[in-house]
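Field reference: "sequence" (input) and "structure" (output). Example, Ribosomal RNA-processing protein 7 homolog A:
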Amino acid sequence: MVARRRKRAARESDSGVPTLPGYSAIPIKFSEKQQSSHYLYVREHKVREGTKSSWPQKRTLFVLNVPPYCTEECLSRLLSPCGSVQSVKLQEKPELAESPKEPRSKFFNPKPVPGFQVAYVVFQKPGGMSAALALKGPLLVSTESHPVSSGVLKWIRDYTDSVPDPEALRVEVDAFMETYDRKIAEEEAKAKEEEGVPDEEGWVKVTRRGRRPVLPRTEAASLRVLERERRKRARKELLNFYAWQHRETKMEHIAQLRKKFEEDKQRIELMRAQRKFRPY
């Protein structure tokens, strides 16, 4: 009991705010009506010597315990008084490298993480990060000028956003296919240029493009292939699939064996009756 009280005292400061070693706590509230505060834990993003990280040093703020209703836009707005925010990235878990930026799709984006996340906030200048570490709060996520929907309103908005516009979806799919076709054409042109050209070590890359084209099948050959496939499927068909079919087949087999046995007995009796004693 005493050890538990000591641990609780170590986790809380004199003001009763939960603390985390090495982190500063920033209280936030969803709105003015909320009585209790939620705490973000922030510190400067640092890595060990010799470890590579794509996040800029001295300007990146690492944030823990980001609630689901706090989006990247909300974090940027909450921390903008500290300095100009260059970028905000929410992730499921900490990573040393920033994920490559790809054009976001309104229809094919992966689902957001349904829970608490971590964030990397990059400021334009190092002073912005220092000011963020000294924030006291509480900060309001949803205000009159920047309302954040929650509850039923958020569900309705999410459902409305999940229903795609057919015309917009068609435009995006067409644009994606044009980009894909252009990429495939460039790869084929590059492969055609490199075909038969030896590399630095004198090796020549052999591809399927250099093979002799296969002659088209005749009608007779196609019919033979179809007949072969039909026989193969017929052999693979399941016989006596149901239990009652299997049972009837066994009973018919037993009946045939019994009938043959009786016929053999009659034939033997007939042979014995026709047998005569011939001493000469």
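The CA atoms of residues 82 and 131 lie 5 Å apart.
The longest strand covers residues 38-44.
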